[in-house]
Design goal:
heterodimer; A: mainly alpha; about 55% helix; about 5% strand; elongated; B: Alpha-Beta Plaits; 4-stranded mixed sheet; two-stranded antiparallel ribbon; 10 strands
Amino acid sequence: MRDKGRIIIGLVIFLILITFPVWYNVARGKAGYVPQLEKPATVKQCVRDTSFMKAHHMDLLDEWRDRVVRKGEVMDIDMAGKPVEMSLTRTCLGCHHNREAFCNRCHSYMDVSPYCWDCHVDPKETK
Amino acid sequence: MGIDRRKFIKASGLAALGLAGLAPVKLFGTEDSTQAVSDSVSSRKEIGKPLEGKRWAMVIDINKCLREENCTACVTACHTAHNIPHFDNSKDEIKWIWKETFHNAFPEQEHEHLKDHLLEKQLPLLCNHCDNPPCVKVCPTEATWKRERDGIVMMDWHRCIGCRYCMAACPYGSRSFNWRDPRPFIDRINPDFPTRTRGVVEKCTLCEERLRIGQLPACVEACKAHAMVFGDLEDPDSEVRALLRENFTIRRKPSLGTHPEIYYIV
């Protein structure tokens, strides 16, 4: 164990480096950072319960995709019993106008990159 | 020897350390980037009662069509409705509805003494929505299939893997492959219809997105000469059935047994 000292110093440096992002954010006062999403001003209720949407919006979108493309359906029933068109561009963006401040903000925090918008169109980006 | 084993292991360890240190930075340190809000709600089409039919078909009157000199209304309407890109290189061309000479459209049925206008002018071609579609048989992912309820040969661009078997199988050249990202080559993007990405095959879907909200296909609606008639082949009282009863009609390459559902009055 001739190199005991060096190994311990090495381990300490390693621990500091690997936990650097935590220290960095604590130092900047962003330890408890959660992205603030821009919610629609007028509409208070989404097509499903908010907690369901938070966890399972992607499952709902998958279901909508299959029903629209493969079964040829148009409308879904929202939680208030009203018919809504199964459309990412028209229904989702119809309320959540600002995709950047809603979808992207959380997706980038979670480090996921869905490719919905490679094909589907955000009307704001067509200008 | 420039580097011995001991140095190599040390360097590898440092490199691994560096990578391990970098990875979580993104996870913890992502910041908001707020963009200016400039709202514009998509131009919404009215959702009407869906058009119902058991076997959609189209009858195209070539004589009426060719009377309109150099008309491309159907092609333009389709391209605008479906975000079809325009590439200068014809090898990249995306075709849903396009114009072709009789010679190329009906190679089995031409001869050199045809009516003049058939020899010279171009007539509209589109996916035949075959009753026995060879493209469907070869698709390994069921990204294209024939709808049981109305006979439309549909495409699911979510599922297409771009193998292009369907393009090899289609005897009509109705399918196109996106060799390049189409978005920059679309003149004006219609937000009511998705664009496609590089690496998928696309074709005419007989405007199923319009049928289901009660509208006729874009090409039929745009045709100034009323040369294109769309309707249900299973309904004996439909306009298509009446036209087929009263006129002599031909289909493209009938000998292949694909049973095209686009009929041409010559």
